[in-house]
Amino acid sequence: MTFETEEQKREIQRWSRLAIQLIGAADSGNFDHITTAVVVRELEGDLFAFLKRELPASVWAISKLTDVDRHKLSQQWQMFARAYEPKQFHVSRNGLALLAAYVLHLIDIFHATLPK
Q1: What value does the mean pLDDT of the chain take?
Q2: Are 23 and 74 within 8 A, CB to CB?
Q3: What domains sit in the chain, N to C, each tagged with a CATH number?
């Protein structure tokens, strides 16, 4: 049986808070211009710089992502964008919803409990 370290638990918390903030921003309707196509395109560059310009500061204050988080997430999101269609994450339009789905998928695969 393996246990998660305190740092891994904190990472899950930060990523979960980010997913909640992204879902809230998507649901507000204020960011409908951030489509799945925009996210996939921005992932070719610096998506976090784009999101920092587009989203309220509260998203970042609440999630408290570290530089390591941003690096990890960027790498994984770029891989997902190349390997999968957004519809494989049950998202067809909203780019923020796609990013939230990516985050939840990462939490699932990085912090999975192996069945006995």
Answers
A1: 92
A2: no
A3: 6-110 (1.20.120)
